[in-house]
Design goal:
The protein is an all-alpha fold. The protein is 60% helix and 2% strand.
């Protein structure tokens, strides 16, 4: 793993989610990082569905109400658009690689991360942080930006910035 954990960046609107998520981002090995990030992403997606569509948590916890179905609902309702939607899909795909393979192919993971998009709001980081040079840090920043911005939009009852 690259030594990227010491890189500094700024998250706007620090709250409980940001603090918990930041602990995961900085204190996890690669496998934990990717799996826990997907858990935080799904938690925010569930909160969005609860708030916007009044879906009870029991429905969202049903094993037949899976991650991609939740994203399809948000996408088709116009609630979540790119870059957020794209990043959420990539977070899930990377999580699946780490959850189902003992030794995921690093180059494949790097290619998926390289397609992630810097969210337009919620996080700022230097232009020199590219997926080619700092692939793990780039994943962390895109993930934090996506999940934090979605959470802030839920809390403040505003649309996502695009």
């Amino acid at each position: 793993m690259e030594d990227e954990n010491n890189q500094q960046f700024e998250i706007e609107n620090k709250d409980e989610l940001s603090q918990m998520f930041s602990e995961t981002i900085f204190n996890s090995n690669e496998r934990d990082l990717f799996i826990r990030t997907a858990l935080y992403a799904e938690w925010v997606i569930d909160k969005w569905l609860e708030e916007k569509f009044n879906l009870p948590s029991e429905t969202l916890d049903n094993r037949f109400f899976f991650y991609d179905l939740k994203l399809d609902i948000l996408k088709n309702a116009g609630e979540v658009v790119d870059p957020y939607l794209h990043n959420l899909k990539e977070i899930s795909q990377i999580r699946n690689r780490y959850a189902h393979k003992l030794e995921p192919e690093e180059e494949s993971i790097k290619r998926m991360i390289a397609t992630m998009i810097k969210p337009p709001a919620g996080i700022r980081f230097a232009e020199n942080i590219t997926p080619e040079k700092y692939w793990l840090l780039y994943f962390k920043l895109c993930s934090i930006g996506t999940i934090n911005e979605m959470y802030q939009a839920i809390v403040s009852k505003r649309p996502l910035h695009v």
